[in-house]
Amino acid sequence: MMISPYPVATIFGVLIVALTIAAGLIWLERRLLALWQDRYGPNRVGPFGLFQVMADMIKIFFKEDWIPPFADKTIFVIAPAIIMVTVLMSFAVLPIAPGIVVSDLNVGVLFILAMSSLGVYSVALAGWSSDNKYSLLGALRAAAQMLSYEVFMGLSIMGVVLLAGSFNLVQIIDAQRGLWFVIPQFLGFVLFLIAGVAETRRLPFDLPEAESELVAGFHSEYSGMKFGMFFVGEYLGITLISSLIAILFLGGWLGPILPPIVWFLLKTFLLICFFILLRASLPRPRFDQLMTWGWKVMLPLAVANLLVTGAIVVATAQGRSF
Amino acid sequence: MTESAAASLQSQFGIPAAASDWNKDGIATFWVDREKLHPVLSFLKEQVTDPYRMLYDLTAVDERTRVHRPGEEKGDFTVVHHLLSFERNEFIRIKTALEDSALSLDTVTDLWPAANWYEREVWDMFGIRFTGHPYLQRILMPATWEGYPLRKDHPARATEMGEFRLPQAKQAAEQEALRFRPEEWGMRRTRAGSEILFLNVGPQHPGTHGVLRVVLQLDGEEIVDAVPEIGFHHRGAEKMGERQTWHTYIPYTDRIDYLAGVINNLAYLVAVEKLTGISAPPRAQVIRVMLSELFRIISHLVWYGTFAQDLGQLSPVFYTFNDRERALSIIEAVCGARMHPNWFRIGGVAQDLPQGWDRMFRDFLAYLPRRLAEYDREVIRNRIFQARTKGVGSMTTEEAIEWGITGPALRACGFGWDFRKKQPYSSYEQFEFDIPTGKNGDCFDRAVVRVEEMRQSLRIIEQCVNNMPEGPYKSDHPLATPPIKDRTMHDIETLITHFLSVTWGPVIPPGEALGTIEAAKGNNGYYLISDGGTNSYRTRIRTPSFAHMQMLPLLCRGRMIPDLFAVLGAMDYVLADVDR
Known about the structure:
The complex is a heterodimer.
Chain A: H1 7-36, H2 52-62, H3 73-91, H4 108-130, H5 133-156, H6 158-164, H7 169-174, H8 186-199, H9 224-249, H10 260-281, H11 287-317
Helix pairs in contact in A: 1-9, 1-10, 3-4, 3-9, 4-5, 5-8, 5-11, 6-11, 8-9, 9-10
Chain B: H1 5-13, E1 28-31, H2 34-47, E2 54-62, E3 77-85, E4 90-98, E5 104-106, H3 115-126, E6 129-131, H4 168-178, E7 190-191, E8 194-195, E9 197-201, E10 213-219, E11 222-229, H5 237-241, H6 250-254, H7 262-276, H8 282-310, H9 316-335, E12 344-345, E13 348-349, H10 357-380, H11 383-389, H12 397-402, H13 408-412, H14 419-422, H15 443-466, H16 492-503, E14 511-518, E15 523-530, E16 536-542, H17 544-550, H18 552-556, H19 561-571, H20 575-579
Parallel strand pairs in B: 1-4, 5-6
Antiparallel strand pairs in B: 2-3, 3-4, 7-8, 9-10, 10-11, 12-13, 14-15, 15-16
Helix pairs in contact in B: 8-9, 8-15, 8-19, 9-10, 10-15, 15-19
């Protein structure tokens, strides 16, 4: 196990970098969407509109912290915190570069899946405690969607775990020195990507929000900093999923010439852009179509992928002895 | 050969046709007693050969202050049914006289479900009761409104209505009247032992594209029933028609279907020009066609982008609005205004085309097809888009006719009925274009038909650009308003004529006419009655969106919430067109 020489520095480093990236994504997404949609996007505040994020932060911090009188106050306040906590906890096990990891957990993959499951509570409780029909419908959709997509999200990365022989993310990266897992596990890669989009509730899987139908769904009643937490939570989620894909399938920090941390950030960044591109291009399926797709197409594929990978691993292991 | 309607009604009921010199539109008109009305309409719909299957419009007229009336007319109020036969390709007008003392009539909702809203509107506006109507409540005005707005004794302006006060008691009563009671909307609170969830969509909701309210009765995400409530956008356009002069009413028409600009002018002017017998000179007619088709494209582009957005696709709306911007800049160059150009005039158009107009049109003709091909790839051929629209909100041709559906939605059912072809106006008969049709009458087919219509409109515009006739842009008919400039200011006579026609406005000879055109969203018709004055005695605006909106519950019952927005998006309505 690799232990970081300066644990406290690493913790704060990861925390600050993750939050900065998430905040920067607000600007990046708006600019990229604008670019693809023949618009300008925010370009007034600071160079290229970069300080727009600061302006938004200042605005959101100074907004009235309003709780609807009909809401269940305690849960209403806790809900947005849950999403921040669970996503940020997941960052703790992400290996960013050799030696830069907060906690080199030997069940890192499982830990992240567990945190992602807990994240459902945030959305479901937010919708429930708002006591608003739109929010409730959004929360129900979110709960159903995230639970069902989690099933094959877990299954789709088991192939990687089988190949690497470990749940530890650092060892998974090490196992990709010869060949990135995206090649042998291409199906798993695609499945995980789709499940990842669904987990972060981004278009085309933004059914819990669905602004043209449910008017922001589960967070309709949220404003000010609590809304901001959902907002940043979503971007943190994108960053997390993108980093995970980079680690599990694209070799994490591995790459020639450039320093490892640059490789990791570059891969993550490109995946984030892909997430935003999805949002710019796809319509939203209907709820029942989403469920049918998840249970009848994705799940069988994930199981098949796991079985085939397992069979191959066993077959090739015959020659070797454990 | 089909027996004429007049002969059938004469032999069956002994009803003679009304004097034809009164109807400037040549539509056969019959006066039917109130007892006989239901049997006659039933006969015309179901028994006569080549039946009149569509209830095109149903309205009323307050006759109490009218001066010029033909001999057979009597009664204080007249209820007018307009029916349309597709086989005959003709309208028929059935009038029923009612006395002030007995303002009631048998409902025809059992014959046409579409009569429901029309009869409610007549009740709302004139206070005429329809016995046997399932739900005779106000539809456009607030439930607490006093009086019947389209009666002649009802004031037209707020300033004529006395001081407005809202004491506590009145405010409480108004708010109580707005309380939602499912039973009053014809809804039950439970189904099969489980409680029903009511969801109020609108009047402020991003998916309703305007102030439309739909009350959903939900079982989970399944829509048990949907009841649209309209009237939030009601501005009394018909009442204003009785106040404005014939000429100064034109800008008001722009604002009915506010996405389709001059097409509204045309619908109104087709009726006015029938009343006056003016025919616009060829150049004016082709200019009208060219601008109308450009506005059809503009309207469809708005629909295209917002429909994709309703389905969660964020980008197309920016692209189509960009294209619309280019089209509007042409409109701006020609008319000086953009959304509400107010460009057509009685007897022609406001001014001749500006120099270099054809280059702008040609640039646009070269530009748009490429973009449309791109949107085909991006939207129409997208598999999620298809999954969201195919089989959603489908209707058959029979249902469409029954409910008064016209325009792209009717053609999406596979019935190629287009008023530009069937009853050409403004020289449409001289143009070559196809009528795109669908097959299944679902949201997807409606989308495909509209997209193809844009290509056909481009074809028409191209023919206009290549073959624009020379000549005057306005008729030299004395009622053409305002008169052509070089014919004024020569002597006292021409000066006076000009002065009167732009201050008082033209005096249109008494009579009545229905002008119908193929507007961007379906059939738009103006039924105008002139009492020989400078303004209309009755302006009735028949809009496509009103009829289409009424069908909403039928299209989304048993489906899921997202389908409601697919259906609404594919319907392509604007609330001003629904509420007027």
